[in-house]
Amino acid sequence: MNVGAHSRGEVRRTNVNNLLALVGGSGPRLLLFAHADEICLMVKSVSEDGFLHLWTYYRDVDGHLPTRYTPVNQPGLVVSSTGNIDGYIATASGHVLGGRPGKQDRLVWNDIFVDVGAGSAAEVEALGIAAGSRVIWSPLARRPRGNIVGKAMDDRAPLAIVTLVGEALATRDDLPYEVWLGSTIQEENGLIGAASLADEITIDLAIALDVGLTGDIPGPDKRDFPARLGACPTIVYQDSSCHYSQILSDELIAVAPSATIPIQRSIFQHYGSDGSALIRRGVETALLTCPTRYTHSPIEMVSERDLLNTVALLTAFCATSRASLND
Ligand SMILES: [Zn+2]
Question: Which of 24, 103, 271, 301 has the fewest CB atoms below 10 angstroms from its CB?
Answer without folding.
Answer: 103
